[in-house]
Amino acid sequence: MVAPLSAWPWENLGVFKYLLYGPLAAKVLYSWIYEDSIKDLWCLHILVICALRGLIHQLWNSYSTTLFLTRNRRIKQEGVDFKQIDREWDWDNFLILHALLAYMACLIFPSLDDLPLWNPKGFITLLFLHVTVSEPLYYWAHRLTSAYDKFLSAAAGHATFLEHLILCVVIGIPIAGSIMMGYGSTSMVYGYVSAFDFLRCLGHSNVEVVPHEVFNKLPFLKYFLYTPTYHSLHHTEMGTNFCLFMPLFDAMGNTLNRNSWHLHKKISSDSAKNGRVPDFVFLAHGVDLTSSMHAPFVFRSFASVPFSTRIFLLPLLPVAFLVMLIMWAWSKTFLISFYNLRGHLHQTWVVPRFGFQYFLPFAMEGINKRIEEAILRADRIGVKVISLAALNKNEALNGGGTLFVEKHPDLKVRVVHGNTLTAAVILNEIPKDVEEVFLTGATSKLGRAIALYLCRRRVRVLMLTLSTERFQKIQREAPADCQNYLVQVTKYQAAQNCKTWIVGKWITPRQQGWAPSGTHFHQFVVPPILAFRRDCTYGDLAAMRLPDDVEGLGSCEYTMERGVVHACHAGGVVHQLEGWTHHEVGAIDVDRIDIVWKAALKHGLRPVSSM
Questions:
Q1: N or C: the chain end with fewer CB closer than 10 Å?
Q2: Residue 376: HSE in the Cβ half-sphere, 13 Å Cα cutoff
């Protein structure tokens, strides 16, 4: 069953729906350019009010998804998944509707241009009309249309076309009434609409911000101001708590949920306590300033798709730079996202450092301190496994996590670099009939493991390295009858006939030029190499798709597709699901590559084809 008037007239326009603001913007620009003053002043006011309302919704959305501030105040503990985010993608449709209706009102009543800036009587009249007309009107309209609530999301701006038409009437009556009585003012319109949206967002935030002590001291207030907990019960226990902002009308209509105040007090009181302990933590880090805006608490919809540089991000770069400096000076590791997998809580924590900082010699000690603090915190609260992202396990930084394990031998949390599964993903991407590969970054942890594994498969490995000592050390680790499959090369020209390149060290377009046509570039280098050759193919960074039964996942991990995580993240997930009790740090155990790969497949993780 589809709710009546549930579809928006412009739902198929995509981003072109914003052209509906065109007549308003055109009138403002025309007056500004060709006339002495802006005659249709309310056209400008409507645009400003829409921008202000959008900002209010965005700020509330950012606050509710800033988990390091709100995790202990969340009402519903489930995460917001991709399906819900997609349903709410066009949450701002109502702003267009209200703008068009307001523009029509301005055309019908041109005297609105004569409204004074301030009239205190207007606020009194407006409050009276809101309480006596808007509140009961919304209550009964909401109660009568409650059968369609199952079609609505829990977001303040996302509802059907029908519900927002009702809201237009609810908002419009106090404003129109005050103006018709001669008490209207510009500040009254701005103030009422802003307060209305603020309270709507408050109720849908899923974060309890109203202290229960307020109602203990002023008991009557609980009938005049709802709370996020109060409104959440309307969505979880249908048939109760229909009010707009004032529970008084639920009490009068006998629809007030009896558990409202008890649940509110419990959630408010428990906010000072630690929440549920995660079973697994992925310890990530920033990449660059632009990608830092891919965080869910910046733009949740943007974070729900793979990262790519967008034009709208560029004006925000100065803000991102300032935030980076503040985090460098004061910030600690913080929670950024979570999901649930088969009853296990998995979280992503972020070390507040960006990629370039990991290569500053004077910053390395501070970065290790932040990583160590995160590991010790995870150990203290009872986390089972913590996995280190790319640069957090850098060999030059901490020996792939060895530094922390040796310094704290009694750690109960298992520290995992995830490189074993990363190697497994890369190796299983290579066709079985390949007889020769070219390997850069050949003496790194991953390069060593890949070379030793492939030589056991009787694959000839051209290992690019200038260090004969490092090459020979790795060669001696191979079985005696396989050592001749490892070949040291010092120039890219040596691979001009090899069509399988495994890139573990960044290579320039010029260096790529030595690869023959039809070459496929596998890679485990951060950042990924530029896809320069049109006659070649390029693999993505090693990654795996999480099982289908993952719950509450609503953000993409950097450039990965929805539901896909980096292999080092997936490696920690497998470690936790298997219940392994060993640390995975330092050099990769080549004998465990197949074991980890089979365990990943057993638990439903799937490789992401890059060919």
A1: N
A2: 10
pTM of the model as a whole: 0.93
Domain's final residue, options 218, 252, 271: 271
Spatial distance between the Cα atoms of 488 and 486, rounded to a whole number of angstroms: 7
Burial of 278 (0-12, 13-18, 19+ CB in 10 A): buried
Q: Are residues 184 and 316 in the same domain?
A: no
Residues linked to residue 351 through DSSP beta bridges, in sequence order: 285
Closest CA to 486 of 523, 445, 452: 452
Question: Is the domain of 335 the same as that of 229?
Answer: no
Q: Which is nearest to 129 in space by CA: 63, 56, 181? A: 181
> Using CA atoms in the order 540, 87, 197, 60, what is the torsion angle rounded to 10 degrees?
-30
Q: Would you say residue 5 lies in a domain?
A: no
Does 259 lie in the same domain as 280? no
| Joined tokens for residue 528 | 């990924």
CATH code for the domain of 461? 3.40.50.720
Q: How many domains is the chain partitioned into structurally?
A: 2
Could you tell me if 396 and 443 lie in one domain? yes
Q: Among 236, 271, 306, give the residue marking a domain's end.
A: 271
- C-alpha 50/C-alpha 46 separation (Å) is 6
Give me the pLDDT at residue 16, please: 95
Determine, yes or no, domain membership for 396.
Answer: yes
Phi and psi for 180 in degrees, rounded to 5?
A: -65, -30
Q: Tell me: the pLDDT tens digits for 238-281?
A: 889 999 999 999 999 999 999 999 999 999 998 878 889 999 99
Summarised one tens digit per residue, pLDDT across range 552-578 is 999 999 999 999 999 999 999 999 999
For residue 282, the cross-strand partners are 348, 387
Domain match, 213 and 308 both: no
For residues 340 and 546, is the Cβ–Cβ distance under 8 A? Answer: no
Ramachandran quadrant class, 499 (left: phi over 0; alpha: psi -120 to 50; beta: rest): alpha
What is the domain extent for residue 44? 11-271
Cβ–Cβ under 8 Å, residues 230 and 264: yes
Q: Are residues 161 and 40 in the same domain?
A: yes
Looking at the structure, tell me whether residues 479 and 416 fall in a common domain.
Answer: yes
Residue 323, classified by CB atoms within 10 Å of its CB into exposed (0-12), middle (13-18) or buried (19+), is middle
The two three-digit tokens of residue 205, written as one number: 């935030």
Task: State whether 258 and 282 are in the same domain.
Answer: no
Residues 131-187 have pLDDT tens digits of 999 999 999 999 988 755 544 454 555 778 988 999 999 999 999 999 999 999 999
Structural domain includes residue 6: no
What residue type is 524 in one-letter code? F
Assigned domain for 514 exists? yes
What are 566-609's pLDDT values in tens digits?
A: 999 999 999 999 999 999 999 999 999 999 999 999 999 999 86
pLDDT, tens only, 297-348 = 999 999 999 999 889 889 999 999 999 999 999 989 999 999 999 999 999 9
